Amino acid sequence: MKKFIQITKTHPYYTVAVALGLVLLLAFAFSPRDKEQSEDVLKEARSVSTISVSEHSQGALGVAVPTAQGNSFVIRAESSGRVEEVAKTGTTVQKGTILARLDNSAQLAALTQAEGSYDAAVAGAAQSDVSVSDSEGALVAAKQAAVSSNRSALSSWNSVLFNTVDQLFSNPRSGVPGVLITADSKAPMLNTERVALKEVLNDWQNDTNTLSETDNTTEINSILDSAINRTQRLLDMVDIFVTLLPKHSPNEAMTASELATLQVEFAAARTSLNSDLTSLSSAKTSLLRAEEALNKAKIGGTSGDLSAANASIKQALGLLQSARSSYEKTIVRAPFAGTVTSLNIAVGDIINIGTDVAIIVPEAGAETTKSFNLPLSAIKYTPDNAYVFTVNEDGTLESISIQTGLVTANYINVTGLNGDEVIVNDVRGLKAGQQVNVSN
Fold this sequence. Notes:
Shape: elongated
Number of strands: 18
Distance between the termini: 65 Å
Helix content: 40-55%
Number of domains: 3
Mean pLDDT: 80
Order of helices and strands: HHEEEEEEEHHHHHEEEEEEEEEEE
């Protein structure tokens, strides 16, 4: 000890350095544990929200809550109003028997109105479907007209080309220049175009052979567009000849009478091709309008992806279900077979939601378990069982064992609860005995 004091006096700076090192070492050693303890406290004090099990009751037969004795159940009202009818004490009832009826004239009127609205929506949808059927028939007719117009235009085009235009070409299939207009500067271009029209004819014939009124509108419209372009192409050649023929003088190859006849034939060909263009354009317009009308009809009917009729039916059905539920809640029914041992209300009483109506002792073997559709997030699964969590007065989680049933997209049907429990809405990451704070 004396030696340590002497060293301290002799080397004071080293002594201070050593002391500071020990302090830092101790702080480093203890700080992680304190941090971990703080994190544990935060985890233990997790905030949770809760829901009432009774709000997720399946069906509308009233709420049955076991009495303290456990051999009977209190049946509670799910609506408020004036009592108009009650059962008698000592009566043996079956499941669904009316124990009490409240004044429900307003609910009945709302239900009747909702039923009428639903029937009207269904009738409107049926009428809309008639319009859809009519529009479908109109579209089929438009397709048939389009196919017919295409075939007619091809036939007319073929006749003009071979019976009229080819009179001015020596051999249109071999590319030999035309005999009557060789002196004109347009002759080489016209001969080249005439040879090219052979491929146009082949392509058009192939398209026509594969075309059917059962094809979709896009395919038919595409062929109509091609037919319009091909008709216009031949019309352009005919227009050139209509211009050139009056300028041609009679000669040994063609008399004045023959030239006059050709002018008449080319004028008629021009009229025929223009008529085909009008027919093809009209067929395309009619087809597009028929398809548009069908799409609009489908929106109004029940067969479309976006259906106003279906939306109206769903809306009316929702109102009907809501009205029916409100009406049914004014009628307190026995949730199971048994004997009415006590009645807590009388005719003329004004009662509220949750009022004790009657006490029933279930008959032997009667199903007295009420089921609830709870959120999936409210269920805690273990290898042995499934649970929900309640929060006791100390803010500690307590587990209640349940039995699970049908699972839907958002809910799971469970039994094993009374209906008066308040449970944690989201149990992920929680465990029984954990400290929590209720946020709602």
